[in-house]
């Protein structure tokens, strides 16, 4: 068992595992509706939730999976001006070998 600051009777490693699992479950719940809609229209969909640097994970999935397109939001959480793409979107567009569809954020 890792040593660390105990918080509410839990060690830090156990606490972080629970936080990460909760975030993963929340993310999976949020994409279920999108997955369902895409499948209804005939798309083959595989949902993945991963931890790490987003652009690295996206480009890695492109290489590992037989994808036909990458779909991204135009802005992440950085709230850049509307004239600029988000840094993740821009990086993926530059280095992706497959088509990239960028959806404008509301």
Give a description of the structure.
The protein has 106 residues and is mostly helical. It folds into two domains: 9-43; 50-106, Rossmann fold (3-Layer(aba) Sandwich), CATH 3.40.50.620. It is built from three helices and two strands, in the order H-H-E-H-E. It has helices spanning 12-40, 54-64, 87-95, and strands at residues 70-73, 100-103. The protein has a two-stranded parallel sheet. The longest helix has 29 residues, at 12-40.
CATH architecture assignment name of the largest domain: 3-Layer(aba) Sandwich
Shape: globular
Strand composition percent: 5-15%
- What's the gyration radius in Å? 17 Å
DSSP strand tally: 2
Q: What count of structural domains?
A: 2
The CATH superfamily of the largest domain appears as HUPs
- How many angstroms does the end-to-end distance come to? 45 Å
CATH T-level topology of the largest domain: Rossmann fold
Helical proportion? Answer: 40-55%
Q: How many separate helices?
A: 3
**What's the overall average pLDDT, rounded?**
82
Low-confidence stretches: none
- CATH uppermost class of the largest domain: Alpha Beta
Structure class: mainly alpha
Strand adjacency order, main sheet: 1-2
The largest sheet is: 2 strands, parallel
* H/E topology pattern: HHEHE
